[in-house]
Design goal:
alpha/beta, Aminopeptidase i, Domain 2, 7-stranded antiparallel beta sheet, 12 helices, binds manganese (II) ion
Amino acid sequence: MKTVWEKYNEQQMEAVKEFNQGYKKYISDCKTERECVVESIRIAEEYGYKNLKDLIASQTAVKTGDKVYYNNMGKSLILFHIGEEPLENGMNILGAHIDSPRIDLKQHPIYEDKNLCLLKTHYYGGIKKYQWVTTPLAMHGVVCKKDGTSVNIVIGEDENDPVLGITDLLPHLARGQMEKPAPKIIEGEELNITFGSIPLKDEEKEPVKANIMKMLKDRYGIEEDDFMSAEIEIVPAGKARDYGLDRGMVMGYGQDDRVCAYTSLMALLDTPTQKKTTCALLVDKEEVGSIGATGMHSIFFENALVELLELAGGFSELKLRRLYNNTDMLSSDVSAGYDPTFPGVNEPMNSAYIGGGMCLNKYTGSGGKGGCNDANPEFIARIRAAFEKHDVTFQTAELGRVDCGGGGTIAYIMAQYNMNVIDAGVAVLSMHAPWEVTSQADVYETYRGYKAFLEEM
Ligand code: MN
Ligand code: MN
């Protein structure tokens, strides 16, 4: 079976390594949607991107070649690079999501039980809960205080930091547990974070918890009630690393979908001004159905377009509708990689292989394509031509055997605007596990594919 590695010369091999260095750093530094937004803005500003909200405030006109970003509540981000043609001629969009499966703290999380301080959680997204126990975990998040200030918290990433975790039962006493079906081996209410064990001296009532709260007060100035207005995420601790003796893959947390977010972002930043406006969308809440103000179902994208049209010569409903009609989009999201250890769930002729290049999914959904965005063949033909012109290696796949399972992305939401949309991204092994795996060649080829799309469509 041919891989994309075989076509690379020495120089290209170097380019693959270098690109993946940047990628590994991005996913090591950015483990929440907020951290992704902050870091993506930092990188984009280095490329000359300006805050669209500043231009709106100063009523500054937007013209060809301008680069602007629109930050929605610090949790989703849109970047536009204005093209030569009017906006109503449509845009080429790369749309990825920057939320990943994880474990969130509840609003009343902290308690003490039998000399341990623990935190109650509610998991986010589709996880196999048993995978998240007895592995080092870190805490990332924000606590918003009544005085209007907020504190960012990151515990467990610095090598001198302590880590957190979730305990599991010893096998000696797990006879009952081991007979349970997998979803119940560890139940949702058993995903309790171990947070501390040293009591505060001379404290009668819950001294271990009191000691932890004192440390939080001293370090971050927060009280127990402040957890009510906090968004704290528990994620795997540690950096992304090369995977395999030959270093051909990346193991890292949150590759669904930050692998497509990073490649989409870099493809946009590295693409010069085109005829059409180019755009990257990094959105929140995909893993829980794209609902909520920062998810793709929210009208923030439409609001940004209205503002952009206004600054680019004047908004009209007609221009907005034409923009939608004339827009092409890649829903930049990951695909299920074929795992030779579990061949039964895939149909080999229509599977995504590690090292097989960028992956196009014409449709997702489950059970008779239920809930799918089925991309138009006319659109796929244009993409094939763009990829051929740029020598992009790609494969096409579906999400597992027919009736085996299923899933979705933001493709169907964008298709509601009457855009042409197809899912396109990187194949992942161990998807939604604490540590996911991708091929470095696929990461690089996907970046190249996104760039080809922005330049040729
Ligand atoms: Mn995804
Ligand atoms: Mn996912």
